Structure formats: C-alpha cells, structure tokens
Amino acid sequence: MMLAAGYLLVLSAARQSFQQDIDNPNGAYSTSWTGLPIVMSVVYLSGVFGLTKYFENRKPMTGLKDYMFTYNLYQVIINVWCVVAFLLEVRRAGMSLIGNKVDLGPNSFRLGFVTWVHYNNKYVELLDTLWMVLRKKTQQVSFLHVYHHVLLMWAWFVVVKLGNGGDAYFGGLMNSIIHVMMYSYYTMALLGWSCPWKRYLTQAQLVQFCICLAHSTWAAVTGAYPWRICLVEVWVMVSMLVLFTRFYRQAYAKEAKAKEAKKLAQEASQAKAVKAE
C-alpha cells in the first residue's frame, strides 16, 4: 500500500510539473527526462544477466505469490484506467478514433498525460522479468521477452518526447486492451482459476500488432502523424509480428506434438488391454 501511494504521488507530482509547461510550443511532455530510458535499459539488462547468474546454482525464491498477485492486479487496474481514460479524453477533446493531427496545445494535455502514464508503466512492467528470474523460470526470459520490454520502453519514450498528441494515444489504447486480458489471466492463474481466453492471448497480440501496423502506415502516408515516429512504430510492429509469429508456431508445434504423443500412448494402452483380454 505504501508503494502504491508513493507511486501515485510521483504521478501527481509529474502531472503538476508538466502542467507548468502546458504552453511549451514543443508540447508539455517534450521535457520528459531523456536519461530515464538509458538508465533503466542499463539497470534492466545488467540485472537480468546478474540475477540469472546469481541464481544459477541456487534454489528459486519462494513466497512471491502475494507480491505477484498484487503486481498483476495493479496492472489490470492501471490498464483498465488507461482504456477508459483514453476513450473519455478522445471524446472530451472532440477527436475521432483515428486521423487526428498532432496537437501539442492545452486541449490535448490530459490525453497526453494518459499516454505518458502508459509510457511510464513500461518501466513498471520490467518486474515481469524479475518474477521469472527469481523463480528460475529462465526458459521464459527469451530474446523475445527482453527485446520486447526494452524496445517498447524506448518506442514510447520517442512518442511521448516528440509527438505526444493526436493519434499518439492509439497504440496505447490497443496495448492497454491486450494487457487487461493478459494480466487478468495471470491474476486468475495465481488463484487457480481457469481463464476462458488463455488460448487466444497470443492471437490477440498478433491482431493488435496488425492493427497498429496498419494504423501507423496509414498515418504516415496521409500525414496524420509525423512520418518519422510512424517509422518507429512500423519497426516495432513488424519486429513484434515476426517474433511473436515464430513463438506462436513453435508453441503450436509443441502442443501438437504433445497431443500426438498422448494419443499414441492411449492407443498403446488400449491395445495392451485388448491383448491382455
């Protein structure tokens, strides 16, 4: 509770600080600290390497369930808030769902703050990896996992720093919807509940990447959003599509192989039973 209260105070203080720059012609959020993604990238990558080595010959840490539950529940709540806030602010500002030119003025300040909160949460999401390393789930700390976290941290920094207005919110809206589904599943899994959409999570992520790729391409071509930032999003979505599709195919092949092995085992057991009769 103390950590949550402290985090909310940080967000409130940041909002007040940005509010003072609301008339900045480059946008209030252009003052976001450039050193943050640099520092966090170094801390994250060195932490992953160092902790993995540290636990190499040690037992996995136990007693993390309550911490993980609190974290996952927080992620559900913050992402639900982002989805609702994005939609409400778009409506309040008189914007359409897509096709909005970058507006760095006071009218888009509140929408820009929601986008900034979404970006800021990318640093909190690095805890995903911490839980894996502490429990020695090293097979989950793949190139895809680490690359995904670092890339999105930097991509959202670019968006917030250089173009936090207009359609900048759209990718955050799509990502927040997926994260509501994903962290709800994680929370339910910790409670031992079955999740009806578990098998569709990777498919939903692939759909998200396709939608965001189409949107960023369209925004670049029509000039609805700065093309340089659109290129960053295109790179993110293409690389995510390639890596997640590869992961999905490998997981599907593994699942199919397991089902085939189970089927063969059942047939062998039935044949043995018939022979015994």
UniProtKB/TrEMBL annotation:
<dbReference type="GO" id="GO:0034625">
    <property type="term" value="P:fatty acid elongation, monounsaturated fatty acid"/>
</dbReference>
<keyword id="KW-0275">Fatty acid biosynthesis</keyword>
<dbReference type="GO" id="GO:0009922">
    <property type="term" value="F:fatty acid elongase activity"/>
</dbReference>
<dbReference type="GO" id="GO:0019367">
    <property type="term" value="P:fatty acid elongation, saturated fatty acid"/>
</dbReference>
<dbReference type="Pfam" id="PF01151">
    <property type="entry name" value="ELO"/>
</dbReference>
<keyword id="KW-0812">Transmembrane</keyword>
<dbReference type="GO" id="GO:0005789">
    <property type="term" value="C:endoplasmic reticulum membrane"/>
</dbReference>
<keyword id="KW-0444">Lipid biosynthesis</keyword>
<dbReference type="GO" id="GO:0030148">
    <property type="term" value="P:sphingolipid biosynthetic process"/>
</dbReference>
<keyword id="KW-0732">Signal</keyword>
<feature type="transmembrane region" description="Helical">
    <location>
        <begin position="141"/>
        <end position="160"/>
    </location>
</feature>
<keyword id="KW-0472">Membrane</keyword>
<dbReference type="GO" id="GO:0034626">
    <property type="term" value="P:fatty acid elongation, polyunsaturated fatty acid"/>
</dbReference>
<feature type="transmembrane region" description="Helical">
    <location>
        <begin position="67"/>
        <end position="88"/>
    </location>
</feature>
<feature type="transmembrane region" description="Helical">
    <location>
        <begin position="225"/>
        <end position="244"/>
    </location>
</feature>
<protein>
    <recommendedName>
        <fullName>Elongation of fatty acids protein</fullName>
        <ecNumber>2.3.1.-</ecNumber>
    </recommendedName>
</protein>
<comment type="similarity">
    <text>Belongs to the ELO family.</text>
</comment>
<dbReference type="GO" id="GO:0042761">
    <property type="term" value="P:very long-chain fatty acid biosynthetic process"/>
</dbReference>
<keyword id="KW-0276">Fatty acid metabolism</keyword>
<keyword id="KW-1133">Transmembrane helix</keyword>
<feature type="transmembrane region" description="Helical">
    <location>
        <begin position="35"/>
        <end position="55"/>
    </location>
</feature>
<dbReference type="InterPro" id="IPR002076">
    <property type="entry name" value="ELO_fam"/>
</dbReference>
<feature type="transmembrane region" description="Helical">
    <location>
        <begin position="172"/>
        <end position="193"/>
    </location>
</feature>
<feature type="signal peptide">
    <location>
        <begin position="1"/>
        <end position="19"/>
    </location>
</feature>
<keyword id="KW-0443">Lipid metabolism</keyword>
<dbReference type="InterPro" id="IPR030457">
    <property type="entry name" value="ELO_CS"/>
</dbReference>
<keyword id="KW-0808">Transferase</keyword>
